[in-house]
Design brief:
Layout lengths: L1 E5 L2 E4 L4 E8 L8 E6 L6 E6 L7 E2 L7 E6 L4 E6 L8 E7 L2 E2 L3 E6 L1
Parallel strand pairs: 2-11
Antiparallel strand pairs: 1-3, 3-8, 4-5, 4-9, 5-6, 7-8, 9-10, 9-11
Length: 111
């Protein structure tokens, strides 16, 4: 199993970023996928999840209405569109499938 995130960067508050996770080594359509994040000095926290079909996303309250998770089963990718970013969204963002994690991608939101 391999999960590789991309798309992080530095953005001003109110801006947008789109993260992508490329998955390989397993049958992608069999698994729900999730995004987590970890800010400096804090525990890793759940951000968003999507079912294998892509029809039932769910979100942490802190990002609901601003972030959108989606997946492309043909490409084995799961994306996280992040709009109206806030400084408190600054963290390393991780793609997750059950016990497997990507290496993370840094998102920094300046005020």
């Amino acid at each position: 199993v391999q999960l590789v995130e991309s798309g992080g960067g530095l953005v001003q508050a109110g801006g947008s970023l789109r993260l992508s996770c490329a998955a390989s080594g397993f049958t992608f359509t069999n698994y729900g996928m999730r995004w987590f994040r970890q800010a400096p000095g804090k525990e890793r926290e759940f951000v968003a999840a999507i079912s294998p079909s892509g029809r039932t996303p769910n979100y942490a309250d802190s990002v609901k209405g601003r972030f959108t998770i989606s997946r492309d089963n043909a490409k084995s990718t799961v994306d996280l569109q992040m709009n109206n970013l806030k400084p408190e969204d600054t963290a390393v963002y991780y793609c997750n499938r059950q016990d497997y994690w990507g290496q993370g991608t840094q998102v920094t939101v300046s005020s």
